[in-house]
Amino acid sequence: MDELRGKDLKTAYWINTHQREVATAIKIVSIIIITIIWLVFFVYLIGYIRNYSKTEQALSGAGDVSVNYDSLTAPENLIVLGRDATAHSNSTIDAYAIVQNPNKFYAGRFSYSFTIAGVSKTFDTGIIMPNETTYLVVNNVTAPATASVEVKVENVDWQRIHGRPIVTDFQVQELKLETSELAAATATVTEDTTSNTGTATNTNA
Fold first, then answer.
1. What are the pLDDT digits (tens) for 44-61?
2. Model's pTM, two decimal places?
3. What's the rounded Cα separation, in Å, for the pair 200 and 180?
């Protein structure tokens, strides 16, 4: 190893004669660096704790789905197109009614009643498919051939069995947080589905 000369020799001599001061300076510098690191850590930790609840709230809200209920369309009521009676025997008749479902995307389960010569009889087995026209029939009712016939359809329970594809619109929202900004999508789903009670009565002679 080359011998120390000039400034190197002086520096080595000074360090050798001031070891205590050099060790103290190294300790002080180390303490300052460690203190700065801990201060930075605590600053970020406090900021994280303060913003944690806001971040959680924003992230949980980003996945919410809202439905535009104003866009839902209720099914139209069943239509009684006509009703009449034919003689079954000398003392009995068969009564019938023609019922139409004007809805393209809904089937219905319903109850109905025939009122013949003032006497009412209720049934709860009516089923009709979308855009279907069907007959409701009651047989062998004791009544004269000229008896009046009235039909009442009620308590319709609608079921959407097919229809247009569901359209989903995504609307971007800016979620402003303390630490960052997130862009999340809130979905608005539009679907035609509902249930109602419809009443259709035809009182034509």
1. 888 878 777 776 666 666
2. 0.46
3. 59
